[in-house]
Amino acid sequence: MTHLLPAYCTLTPATNLKPQVERVKYSSTYLPAVPLRPSRFLSKVPSSTRKGNIQRFHIFCAATLPTSQEAQSLSHSNQVHSDGSKPKRVMVIGGDGYCGWATALHLSNKNYEVAIVDSLIRRLFDHQLGLDSLTPIASIHDRIQRWKSLTGKSIKLYIGDICDFEFLSETMKSFEPDSVVHFGEQRSAPYSMIDRSRAVFTQQNNVIGTLNVLFAIKEFAEECHLVKLGTMGEYGTPNIDIEEGYITITHNGRTDTLPYPKQASSFYHLSKVHDSNNIAFTCKAWGIRATDLNQGVVYGVRTDETEMHDELCNRFDYDGVFGTALNRFCVQAAVGHPLTVYGKGGQTRGYLDIRDTVQCVELAIANPAKPGEFRVFNQFTEQFSVNDLAHLVTKAGEKLGLEVSTVSVPNPRVEAEEHYYNAKHTKLIELGLQPHLLSDSLLDSLLNIAIQFKGRVDQQQIMPNVSWKKIGVKTRTVVS
Q1: What value does the mean pLDDT of the chain take?
Q2: Are 160 and 117 in contact (CB under 8 A)?
């Protein structure tokens, strides 16, 4: 049962139950004011947010409390493994999102004690921009309840904004995590390039949120291991091999190992560079232990856990703002839209299956960094150009009887369209990563998902409509 809580409300849980949120306060976040449709997931937004300036809105903290029938089994924190040890606690910030939801379920299934921290703001973005997931996604409360009914495993839920340090502090003290997996950032480069307000929001949300996490670990969980989702986009496309975080160079006869140079290509990617610098500094200054997972482009929708029930289904973005290349191409093929190759199509990046994302996070948690260590892992399994992906989807679509064509569209980004790209990615393999490579069967599965839900596709959202060069001051929507 879900309870929405007013500001400064204190929960009184049943006897012998640890509170899910001991003291709850609403958080305030600045966002662009654009029209909103009614949502069951969010508190009512004042009509003043429809004006053309930046307004403040409130996200109320909520907790999923036990029914009387669940009370006896909810004390998950008192469970022990067969060897007598308590399960490790993992806080997944951004656990309602694409990578975060799959990771939270995977870790829970591996007998970690999991808490999700999320402001649900990703759902708000969809409402603001008129977007929707290809796959229907249940509310976070229904998701967690379904997981409990299927597995008997509880996932704690803290709804609030990590940019509100009071909320984050109370959450950290309540849950006492051994590890924090940080997905809780605005993760789209195109979103950060829509207009000034979204660029500012992206940097404030991402950089300040991560700083708050670092300070919370320092003050309330000094042994906690931070696993931070970075991006391969921090490196850019240099004309030399990309190492894993550090590079050894010789200059004027002297040699040193230094952080690999960063060449971010959007306000989003710049925020991730700032994060990396802040984390590296606090590891050195405070002795924090941290692993930065520079992740490639993720594809796929299914993991072992999300396949257990329709209500556990993950989101599948196909639009020009949040959709990633392979997922977008599969949807375009399913609805008979030409595959949209940006420019020359030689842009090459690292890619990985969503099943490997959750596996990599688990490996990082199980093999934590040492106190004061800032590790960097390049998290991807294969490299493809945009043209490579278009060719693979065309072949897979033809096997399913689809007529697939490709069209070159003007590149909305500022990037090299033909370039050298060779990134190292050995550290996670050495820890035991067993990759799911992009196979014909995986492409077939993705295309069949796209075909199954093609009635939900809004073709107005397929073409790119966010330009790096045309970003301006005035707040705007991106609906065609």
Answers
A1: 87
A2: yes
